[in-house]
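Comment on the following before class.
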Amino acid sequence: MSAYLRHSFLAAAFLCAASSVHADPMAMGSANTDDQAAIASAVSAAPASVSANAAVMTMDASGKLRSLRSGSNGFTCFPDDPSSPGKDPMCLDAAAMGWFKALLANQPPPKGKVGFIYMLQGGSDASNLSPEVRKPADGKWVITGPHVMIVGADPEFYAAYPSGANPDTAQPYVMWAGTPYQHLMAPVR
């Protein structure tokens, strides 16, 4: 998602029932106020049943990751990207985290590792065509409501869904189709 998450980020998957999302202030320990706000933002990306035990990390402008809280369930959550126009925190499983790190490093994603990402606050991306685009040329961001994402699937999986510059974000669609970072974005209602 933008500079913070290499602009835009992914989305995908099948039906995911979003239970209430919350931040657990007791899990935040003695973090400073900025870290507490980042943790609250990050855990809002997934159902409380997932985010309560997820690790929380943040990223600086140079792309360096910093741990804010350890986790025990294999998920890692990131706070909102302040450089994009909407709220877009995310929570990734271990396979999706490998995909994400590859995206950040501009390296090929791991093969044979399908990952899942929650973005229950929605997302805003500069381009549905390329992860390299930082700001939309026409000023129109691709705005997606609450959704989940599937990353790392075989190309045949993505071929079954629509893609293109201006997707119908109310339906499942493929973002960054044809690139190594293509992923399914699936709305959650």
About this structure: The first helix runs from residue 33 to 43.
